[in-house]
Amino acid sequence: MATSTYPPPPPYYRLYKDYLQDPKSAPEPPPPIEGPFICYGANHTIDEILPSLEEQGVRQLYPKGPNIDFKKELRSLNRELQLHILELADILVERPSQYARRVEEISLIFKNLHHLLNSLRPHQARATLIHILELQIQRRKQAVEDIKRRREEAQRLLKESIGTLEDNGTSFALK
To answer: Which UniProt keywords apply (predicted)?
Structure first.
């Protein structure tokens, strides 16, 4: 399979030249990708599973298991990161040749922080979706209330108009 770092766009855009005149002339969308694929020179898979730190060859600094207190662990890793950065500053001043070990430890802490945050993404997406749906429900309820209010106002105006017309001698029935 030939790949390019920045491939040209696919020629599919030519299939949509008559779309504005006839929307049904557009082809059906392609089927979903199955299995691994190459994008910009990197291999990707469809799996939505976050690989563990061990699978990535990184030492895990927080406890394993399904019941992780994310807030506590993120705070702990953040404090540890701050401490290591201060130690790195001290080492750079006192013994500049020994900084590599501290940089590796800081990198390990960042990888652990990044992995913890990425494991929260499904929860974040779910919460965001719930919030969006609640806002939509609220807007629709407001729209319904607005329609009811305007309908009542229109009925009131119609009754007033009919009353005015009947006072002038014309008779109308409101159904």
So the answer is: Activator, Coiled coil, Nucleus, Transcription, Transcription regulation
